[in-house]
Amino acid sequence: MARRKRKDEPTDWVAPDFDEVGYMRTEIQAAKTAVLTIAWAAVGAIVSFLLYSVNAALAFFAGIGVAFGLYYVLPYLGIAVKGFKRRDWTGHGITYFFSWLAFWILLLNPPFGDFTTPTIQAISVSPVHTGYTGYLSCLPLVGGAVTVPLTLGNDSVYVLFRATDNVGLASLQVNVTPGGSSQPPFEPTPTPLFGLSRCRNHTSEVYPGGTYSVVFVFAASTYRVTIAARDPSGHTAAYTFDIRD
Questions:
Q1: End of a domain among 43, 74, 107?
Q2: What is the C-alpha separation between 186 and 188, in angstroms, rounded?
Q3: Total domains in the fold of the chain
Q4: Which residues, 6+ apart, have CB-to-CB distance to 8 below 8 Å?
Q5: For the ranges 7-16, 32-41, 98-107, 181-190, which has the lowest average pLDDT?
């Protein structure tokens, strides 16, 4: 019969010696690899940023392609990659992807880059008589046009619109071309608006940022109005609509 071990008898298993030096070397190399991977992701983001103005898809795949350069860059910078397993490359690839994406998005936005065109929106028109400063009955556009009934002494039109950009506008122009009249085209100066809105439905409504207006005398049967905006990077936006009596 086998003898039962007593609780105070020593066990046969002995813990292996802990290689502290080897462990520290492994951790230091892992940290260096992570830092170099993030730095290489910044290089990929710069490549994508430079190609974005050419083609967005090309910029995306070029940034992904730069990731394969880690296989050659890491050994050149003193990282031994021969012992890397598939899970190691997968981890470094994930680190590269999210770092590259974060750097790229950062570069695509001000102050590094501006790829957004201005916006022109919220256009409405109201009849008005010269010198009137009260509330207005602003009419929205329908199918790129608006009919303004000039009654009760109204002799002008009030055009309200918003023109905005993520950085700011470098220029804003309004061109008005009369139809069926010998009157030449003209460019009224847009006026930025602040405070309470003249076209409000409630007394607490205020002009949102980037709101402008122009006023001109209605001396023809129709007018074609073009609002054009340009930002400091040269991106432009324009909107054309008709005003009818």
A1: 107
A2: 6
A3: 2
A4: none
A5: 7-16
Domain with 70 in it: 20-107
Angle between helices 20-52 and 56-66 (to 10 degrees): 160
CA 103 to CA 40: how far, in whole Å?
A: 11
pLDDT in tens, 121-142: 999 999 999 888 888 989 999 9
In a domain, 8, yes or no: no
Please calculate the CA angle 8-14-17 and round it to the nearest 5 degrees: 140
| pTM across the whole model | 0.78
In this structure, what token pair is assigned to residue 95? Answer: 């680190």
Residue 24 tokens read as 């520290």
Q: Which residues of 31-49 are buried (b: 16+ CB within 10 A; e: fewer)?
A: eebeebbbebbbebbbbbb
214/187 Cα distance (integer angstroms): 9
> Greater confidence, 176 or 27?
176
* Residue 139 within any structural domain of the chain: yes
Q: What distance in Å separates the CA atoms of residue 163 and residue 210, rounded to the nearest whole number?
A: 5
